[in-house]
UniProtKB/TrEMBL annotation:
TM ranges: 34-63, 75-97, 103-124, 136-159, 171-189, 210-230, 236-255
Keyword Membrane in record: yes
Keywords recorded for this protein, A-Z: Membrane, Transmembrane, Transmembrane helix
Domain of life: Bacteria
Record protein name field: MFS transporter
Entry annotated with the keyword Transmembrane helix: yes
Source organism: Alloyangia mangrovi
């Protein structure tokens, strides 16, 4: 690993694991701004965190399957494009302020996209921490490990400086630029090691779940997150809670049946 390769790997490993915490921290720090913008109570902004956590859980379910089938570098570029595009969408949302119903709809769509993409990028960047060889392996692993706590420490300060002066639209636009710049670093990383690592993992790792079981687990997870999102936004008294809870119970039955059929 030469000096240029190491200089490319450090930001990839750091930001690959840290950016997902930046989004979560932004919601924590800007609860009042989100509540005012979406015309909901501050307590109801917990629904946005439910969206992010749900997207992370979906990523935990699907990332191993994706990493077995798609070369790591290509998958990382796709995830950066998805996260960068969604962040630009959030920037435009805060900049142009459409009607409230459209704001809520776009938040429900864009935040899970960001969360899923960045959560999928994290295990890829963890694999890349091993590309430094014996000399730099410990350094890169340490960089990956401190990325999340560092993001939780730095992000609130950035939001408090940028949001009051320039608005959340500027913050999300800057975030999108950072994510999209990672694509350049990924393409400049002249190595086939990530793809080779992915091929080795597919041969040595445990067998993946079947497509039927994957879909059953994904359905149950999405219904559960939809239920928690609804109760966070409208409380348990919403008339939609009971039908959605019934669908969730049915999905658990289907998941159990699919599991036994394996």
């Amino acid at each position: 690993m030469n000096g240029l390769g190491l200089l490319l790997l450090i930001p990839l490993v750091l930001l690959g694991n840290g950016l997902r915490s930046v989004i979560a921290s932004t919601v924590f720090v800007s609860e009042g701004s989100f509540a005012s913008f979406l015309s909901i109570t501050v307590e109801a902004t917990a629904a946005i965190m439910e969206l992010l956590m749900g997207a992370v859980l979906v990523s935990l379910l699907m990332a191993p399957w994706l990493m077995r089938r798609i070369p790591a570098r290509r998958l990382a570029v796709w995830m950066c494009l998805l996260a960068g595009g969604a962040a630009l969408g959030l920037a435009a949302l805060f900049r142009f302020a459409p009607p409230v119903d459209m704001r809520v709809t776009l938040v429900v769509l864009l935040f899970p996209m960001v969360g899923f993409a960045l959560a999928t990028l994290a295990p890829i960047s963890q694999a890349w921490a091993g590309l430094g060889g014996p000399r730099w392996n410990k350094l890169l692993t340490g960089v990956w490990s401190v990325a999340m706590p560092l993001a939780f420490l730095v992000t609130p300060q950035l939001v408090r400086v940028i949001a009051p002066r320039h608005g959340l639209d500027t913050f999300f636009a800057g975030f999108a630029v950072v994510v999209l710049l990672l694509i350049g670093a990924i393409l400049l990383l002249r190595t086939r090691a990530p793809e080779a690592a992915g091929e080795a993992a597919s041969e040595q790792g445990p067998a993946l779940m079947s497509g039927r079981l994957m879909l059953a687990a994904l359905l149950a997870l999405i219904l559960f997150e939809g239920l928690t999102f609804l109760t966070s936004l409208e409380t348990i008294r919403s008339p939609l809670v009971l039908p959605l809870a019934s669908l969730f119970a049915a999905s658990l039955w289907y998941l159990q049946r699919s599991w036994r059929a394996e």
